[in-house]
Every structure is written in structure tokens, then in C-alpha cells.
Design a protein that fits this description.
225 residues; Jelly Rolls; nine-stranded antiparallel β-sheet; two-stranded antiparallel ribbon; 5 helices; 18% helix
Length: 225
């Protein structure tokens, strides 16, 4: 992805959140220089280690308008807390999907999540068990529902669906931009994504312009010094 496209997508997501009356944490406005200045301080280390901040991806498809997503991780526990079952064992993300923009079919081995339509157009979600057979029994707005493999579940603003660990899922915005949320167990985007069609979770970046934001996928290099 071009760096200019990534930075413009973050600008757009921030503007949409503000227009919708959905304030984001202060670090969502931080520039790359802000993060690099804070990185050596003990106070910033938890945010960096937990991957709080912006993530823009085309899942390696090279067609961001059709396949892609903008995310901001607002809170997240550590893998140690997850494995101990104590401490911050949860995560939350803010998501933006443009009209027709799809997050491709994938699953998480360790993470159950709720995907929530926070506002805008409809969000369409498909679920598919890893075996490919049988209904997925899950919760939609807290009510049990058996979802046929590949059957679209249309979520209007305010609605949500639970995606159990080990269940393939994909989703896209239908009829306009969608502001979405994700509430889940601890998030591990490095090792807990399995795509039905093999895809990288993070994009390669074409540095066509000076970077204004620092992506979560770049934190490891910052932490390494």
C-alpha cells in the first residue's frame, strides 16, 4: 500500500469518528513523531506492547477500495494475561469499512469477538465453520441464532454478532460507510489470523510520501530500538 493512502485513510477515519460523536483516545491523534518521542518512556511501553493505535490493511490484495479495513485498537490485554485468565483479558477496536469494502474470510484460534455496527450503513457478515458443514450457533444482539454457512447476516446500526473462536468469517459495508466496533478476548494479530485464501495480515508499504502516522505493525521495530 502507498503510505499516502494509509495516512489519508487514518485522516478519514478520524474525521468520521468526530462527525459521528465517537471520541477516540488521545493517542489516535498522535503523529509518528509523537510516538517516537514517547517510545523510550516507561509510560508508553504498555501501549506499544499491546498494539494500541492505527492499523490500515489491504490484506496483501493490492486493491484497498475493494478489500481492506481501517482499525484502531483502543484497548488490549497481553498474551500473558490471556493465558493466565487474569488482568486485562479483553480488547476493543474501532473499525471503518467503506461501501463494498470487504474484510476477507478468516478465523481466530484463540479469540471470540463481537462485531458491532456502531453507525452508518449496513454491515453484512458471513460465518462458516472450519469444517465447512453445519450451522454456526451464535448470538445476534444477545439472542441465539443458527446461521447457515455463507448466509449473509445483515447488521443495521446498533446490532452485533458474536463470532466464536475457530469460525471463519468475513464482512463488508453495504450501502455506504460503516463505523464498526470489535469487542473481544485479547487480540493477537501477529499469530492468531488464519485466512481461507492465504493473505498477509499487514500490508507491505510503498513509502511514496513521508509517514505522518505510526502503524501498529511498525511498533516491534520501535520497541527493538
Amino acid at each position: 500500500m502507498k503510505r499516502s493512502t494509509i495516512d489519508a485513510a487514518i485522516d478519514g477515519a478520524r474525521s468520521l469518528a468526530a462527525e459521528a460523536g465517537m471520541p477516540l483516545p488521545g493517542f489516535a491523534a498522535w503523529t509518528r513523531a509523537d510516538w517516537l518521542a514517547a517510545a523510550p518512556t516507561p509510560a508508553a511501553r504498555p501501549a506499544l506492547e499491546r498494539g494500541l493505535g492505527w492499523d490500515v490493511t489491504d490484506f496483501g490484495r493490492g486493491d484497498f477500495d475493494r478489500v481492506g479495513l481501517v482499525l484502531c485498537t483502543l484497548r488490549n490485554g497481553t498474551l500473558a494475561e490471556r493465558d493466565a485468565g487474569a488482568g486485562q483479558t479483553y480488547a476493543e477496536k474501532f473499525l471503518v469499512a467503506q461501501d463494498g469494502q470487504e474484510t476477507p474470510m478468516h478465523l481466530h484460534r484463540r479469540k471470540t469477538e463481537d462485531i458491532i455496527n456502531r453507525g452508518g450503513a449496513a454491515l453484512v457478515v458471513e460465518l462458516r465453520p472450519e469444517s465447512g458443514d453445519g450451522d454456526v450457533v451464535t448470538l445476534v444482539d444477545g439472542f441465539e441464532r443458527a446461521v447457515r454457512p455463507g448466509a449473509p447476516v445483515r447488521l443495521d446500526p446498533g446490532q452485533s454478532i458474536q463470532v466464536p473462536a475457530g469460525v471463519f468469517h468475513r464482512f463488508w459495508a453495504d450501502g455506504g460507510v460503516v463505523l464498526a466496533g470489535e469487542v473481544s478476548a485479547v487480540n493477537d494479530d501477529v499469530d492468531d489470523n488464519l485466512f481461507l485464501d492465504p493473505s498477509p495480515r499487514y500490508p507491505s508499504v510503498d513509502e511514496d510520501a513521508p509517514a505522518r502516522y505510526l502503524l501498529v505493525s511498525e511498533y516491534a521495530e520501535v520497541l527493538a530500538g
